[in-house]
Amino acid sequence: MNRETFDVRLQVCLDERRDPLDDPALVAWLDAHPDQLEAFAEQRRRFAVLALPDPPPLSLPKRRRWIASVGIAAAACIAALLLKTNDRAAPSLTSRAPGRILAAVIEPFVAPVGVVAPVRTTEVLIAQPGVRVEMFTQWHVERTGEFR
Amino acid sequence: MPAATMPDAAFEARFAALLAAHRERMLAFLRRLAGPGDDAEDLLQETLAKVWRLRMSFDPAGNAAGWLLQAAFRTFCDQRTRRRGGASAAEPDALPGPSMPCRLELRDEVNRVLSRLSPLERELMLGFHRDGLSLGDLATKHGLPINTVKSHLHRARQRLARPEEP
């Protein structure tokens, strides 16, 4: 199958309201052409949006109410996130998505002026049972003056 | 040629750096496929763990991004197959539904592309994909042969798939 026949087959799939990923030939072609994968994924996402019904137009008072609701929801999310962050101070190997930042600690840099101190950050790349990969970045910082 | 027969620390460090460098791109790709949310994050973890196990088969001279995206795609397809095996046969496998903010942002983008289509193409696209009209319904409604409706839809879909022009 070449690009052209892939396109034709994809269109037939869409005409028949079938998911292209249910067609083994299309999946095999995509698998063999990784350079086309991101474009395909983007196309899939756009079609998903296109299929959604239009949101009803909001009147002005409703729009204000909607903005207020979004504001309240955002504040609630921030509060929930802060609470959750405290709960998860010690990430475990079984964390559902350990790539997320689970906890962060900021400590004042207390080295005397003129002293070069090492600074290290740790990033957990993979944390699954049996596999844990962490990336370390280390650099040196020299304190050059008094903090105000 | 694969990197070596035995992983050494320097190779593993380079490989981990490669994963870190491509992680965001892989996550964005998986989000497009699976929709935003925990699914994409979990799929990314599964992909990273898988490629780590396969690191000795990685060819440093090859296309690293392609290799990683292919692994992510396979992980997504595997998960989809697993889920469909567990789901009831009557339940159709819907396309990923974007979350609210993502949906609004994308909606604007899709609307911009739709506005560049001819009025007929736009009506056909929305009629078919959003309102669920059949090709036959659209042909009758617009007084066109079915094949002409298909041609218009195909052209419009290709435009929708293309990245936005400035």
Model description:
The complex is a heterodimer of chains A (148) and B (166). Chain A has 148 residues and is α+β, with helices and mostly antiparallel strands. Chain A is built from 4 helices and 2 strands. Chain A is 43% helix and 17% strand. The longest helix of chain A is centred in the middle third of the chain and has 28 residues, at 60-87. Chain A starts with a helix and ends in a 6-residue tail after the last strand. Chain B has 166 residues and is mostly helical. In chain B, helix 2 packs across helix 3. The two termini of chain B are 41 Å apart. Chains A and B meet through helix 1, helix 2, helix 3, strand 1 and strand 2 of A and helix 1, helix 2, helix 3, helix 4 and helix 5 of B.
Keywords:
heterodimer; A: 148 residues; alpha+beta; two-stranded antiparallel ribbon; 43% helix; 17% strand; B: 166 residues; mainly alpha; 7 helices; 70% helix
Rg from alpha-carbon coordinates of chain B: 21 Å
Unreliably modeled segments of chain A: 87-99
The termini of chain A sit apart by 67 Å
Order of helices and strands of chain A: HHHHEE
Q: What is the strand tally of chain A?
A: 2
Give the topology:
The complex is a heterodimer of chains A (148) and B (166).
Chain A: H1 3-15, H2 24-32, H3 37-50, H4 60-87, E1 116-128, E2 131-142
Antiparallel strand pairs in A: 1-2
Chain B: H1 9-34, H2 38-53, H3 64-86, H4 100-115, H5 119-130, H6 135-142, H7 146-161
Concise overview:
The complex is a heterodimer of chains A (148) and B (166). Chain A contains four helices and two strands.
